[in-house]
Write a structure and sequence with these properties.
10 strands, mainly beta, about 45% strand
Length: about 170
């Protein structure tokens, strides 16, 4: 479990029963992820004054599966590529390079989206797979999605001990 607020955050590792503050590097990685996150990009980060949007043409992701490819490049060099299904126009993949802001090649981080369902009038993927250098690192399967719901600020407060987590 990980929680971030502004320039800080905390993490909980259930296997080791460890509760700790995030390092500044972990917070920076999270902030980069947020800027590359599909939901945030589509909600308006593509309109950022320092961002440039570019159509890159069609790409074949797998045999006979074509996507339209778009790149969003921020002023600091972070470049996020978004792939949209050529028939449904739904997103299929986002990709960016770790460390792109510094010009370093870094690892390729991909998020792949599958099985779009309607949640309150908004289509959203039920399954999301995360990859690092073509190796799957995580899979998230959503049972339900509620957009724009209120969240109690106490959720982000670091508990005193792991036993205080609920």
């Amino acid at each position: 479990m990980q929680t971030n607020v502004g320039d800080s955050g905390w993490k909980f590792d259930a296997q080791r029963d460890m509760l700790a503050a995030q390092t500044s590097e972990e917070v920076a990685l999270f902030k980069r992820y947020i800027r590359a996150n599909l939901d945030n990009v589509l909600r308006g980060l593509w309109r950022s004054p320092d961002a440039q949007l570019e159509y890159l043409g069609k790409a074949e992701l797998s045999p006979r599966q074509w996507s339209d490819r778009v790149a969003l490049t921020y002023g600091d060099g972070l470049r996020v590529e978004l792939f949209f299904d050529a028939q449904t126009h739904l997103p299929t993949l986002t990709k960016y390079f770790e460390g792109a802001e510094s010009g370093a090649p870094g690892a390729v981080l991909e998020t792949r989206y599958f099985f779009f369902l309607d949640y309150g009038g908004v289509k959203s993927p039920r399954t999301v797979d995360l990859y690092r250098d073509n190796v799957q690192t995580a899979r998230v399967v959503y049972d339900s999605v509620i957009f724009n719901s209120a969240v109690d600020a106490r959720v982000f407060e670091k508990p005193a001990t792991s036993k205080d987590l609920k």
